[in-house]
Design a protein that fits this description.
By secondary structure, the protein is α/β, with parallel strands linked by helices. 30% of the residues lie in helices and 21% in strands.
Length: 214
């Protein structure tokens, strides 16, 4: 079948603007990690409020090419991606070695990277709602990732502890092969990697990741 035509996003200039560094500092994320991912600050339209807002731009690359951008409003929890651009894993170009850590959001991937695990990715759309009928479309980003995943022997699922997170872990394990998957357990008062980093620091986050259970 002919390959689908996707929109190519326009790059956002990665100039450091006031407020961006502080925003990540409040989330205990080192600037070097943020800079490595070429995160920047811009203005973009959010359909949720039908207006332009200041937004953090997380660029999605594959083999060095910009494929998509996730925008997160700086002061509200609004998200959007580039319409009709291809959905791929965030951090594809960081995959190396035989172990890969899977996260549920860009901030969690950055947190895992801050803890010393560069070989980590985030799914583009978060976890599927438990009521989702068609999971296939929700996971079509795995198809384009297959060449990058070929050498991975150990998939560490570091997703959220809520119901959608459990659904995500189950569906990923089904597709990646349960025998190759390990599951991370966060401390009881934290639901994801960034919360562990903010509450307990890098060492505890590293321990959680290293103690993943088969």
């Amino acid at each position: 079948p002919p390959s689908k035509a996707y929109v190519k996003p326009k790059p956002v200039a990665d100039t450091v603007k006031p407020g961006l560094e502080e925003w990540f500092e409040r989330r205990s994320l080192p600037w070097a990690v943020v800079k490595h991912q070429r995160v920047s600050l811009t203005h973009t339209y959010f359909p949720q409020v039908e207006d332009e807002l200041e937004a953090i731009a997380f660029p999605y690359y594959r083999a060095g090419e910009l494929i998509n951008i996730k925008f997160r409003a700086l002061h509200e929890k609004y998200f959007r991606m580039v319409p009709k651009a291809e959905r791929i894993l965030y951090g594809l170009d960081d995959i190396q070695g035989d172990t890969l850590i899977w996260c549920e959001g860009e901030l969690d991937k950055l947190s895992v990277q801050a803890a010393g695990f560069l070989s980590s990715v985030s799914v583009p759309d978060g976890a599927p709602a438990p009521t989702t009928k068609n999971y296939e479309r929700k996971f079509d980003y795995l198809e384009s990732a297959l060449p990058f995943l070929a050498g991975i022997q150990r998939h560490i699922l570091a997703v959220d502890t809520d119901e959608p997170g459990r659904t995500l872990a189950r569906e990923l394990a089904r597709r990646l092969g349960p025998e190759k998957c390990w599951l991370v357990e966060w401390s009881s008062d934290c639901k994801d990697a960034n919360e562990v980093l903010m509450s307990y620091g890098i060492e505890t986050l590293r321990e959680c990741l290293e103690n993943a259970k088969a």
